Amino acid sequence: MILQSIGWDEILEAGLATLAMLGGSLFFTVLFGLPLGILLFLTGRTQLLEQTFAYSVLSAVLNVIRSVPFIILLILLMPLTVLLTGTSLGVRGVIPPLVIGTAPFFARLVETALREVNRGVIEATQAMGGSIWQIVFRALLPEALPGLIAGVSVTAIVLVDYTAMSGAIGGGGLGDLAIRYGYQRFKTDVMIVTVILLILLVQTLQAFGNRLVIHFTRK
Amino acid sequence: MILKVDPSAPVISLRGISKDFIVARKAASALRKIDLDIHRGEIFGIIGSSGAGKSTLLRIINLLERPTAGEVLFDEEPITNARGAELRSIRRRIGMVFQHFNLLSAKTVAENVAFPLKLAGERSSAMIAERVDKLLVRVGLQDHASKYPKQLSGGQKQRVGIARALALQPEVLLCDEATSALDPQTTRSVLKLLAEINRELGITIVLITHEMDVVRQVCHRVAVLDHGQVVELGPVETVFLHPSHVKTRELVHEADHADEELFPDSGVSNGQLYRLTFVGQRTYHPVLGAIAREFRVDYVITGGRIGVIRNMPYAQLTVLFTDGNVPGATARLRANGIAVEHLRGEARAFSLPATAT
Q: What CATH number belongs to A8-216?
């Protein structure tokens, strides 16, 4: 049988590594991207803390990071990664570049989601005597929740893509497996299995994200 | 608690308020040197065409906009430069109702009404629940507490907006075109609610609107804003029945299709055109016919409006007298407490009856 050449143990291990990379990097991406996105929104034109200069600088930095192809970013960030985690290999070694690569993207999605919130709600909260923190945490974020969840699921899918790429520099995971067996050793069956697993992972993430968005949408 | 309108102690005073906006790198002034006193306990209307600066003026009261010059006084204290915690505590004493309701879509009706209390740091959920229940009963939404805004009609959403604005028991309620997104019937019921709140809770209401009927129905006094300036100010009856500024006339008579300017030159142009204003019970007395017969005058009613200003019936008719003893007839009309204004034809001085209520 064709699939006999596949080491299921290895696939299981690689799958778990992918999930670990995804989970770890998604957590830190949201942790850093959310405040960045809020800051972008608040300092934007005609917004509560309008700061044209700060906004332009922040915006430019995020754009620069987003313009660098991820595979290049992986290589460029190696010294920083080693400094932060002690290694540039394995799950730990890819989380910093994954986070730096996707946090700016997620921050943009957060900014867009917050802009979708009815401005009148902000004005009403101000008129009630709400502070800037209350406006952000009690009004803006709850109102933008469906948009934020959609942003998280899109970001998770981008991360699945990036984890596969990080296999190329020794990150491990399903992508690594696909490259090593499928590409370098011509084991097409392994590549197909890993690709199918990645497809399933993306489909699951998207479906789960959609369910949550619908659950939290009240508009 | 029922408060009488007290003109001696204004709850809000605007002193020399100006507001400039930067539009395309040029300063454009939205408001110019506005002086206004809002009396405690009154319903004060601000009318004007769109772009007259109404909305800016209203937002300056709770400092959502800062004036470029001038002073805002709340309870006779200057608040113009209040910031931070001080500003927030002032805003809690001034409720605001919006044209498009501005409810939080992710919160239920009850949560929306509780929202200002939570923001103000109220921790007792029993107290919050009690206050919310009371407010929902007042606005007639007790059966809708756990619904989300999207499940409500426009009128119901505005009732939630009003309940929310009342949650912190404010002294003043600012209404920004609060009925402009509602159909006429809903508008009437929301206005009734606002009048009730003013009467029973003694809350001063400042409302801006472009709908004259809103002002006719509930306001005590009205200011007319044109190009950023107050061009007319007074009791609603006076401003609506005897407008003196061109802009006011334009606004007030917008719905009256026949007026002196619109009166076509017809064959009977040798008559004299008058505007007769009947107010209160006089509206229902059959004086016009009797006086016409007595002084043998013929008349044509060319236009007018019969209606109610804040529970006071009135009729304002544009009448062309064509024959007979017109001076005698107009003198008798005046003697009957009817305001007679001469509009066209052989000139006559007009006077307002001193007894107009």
A: 1.10.3720.10
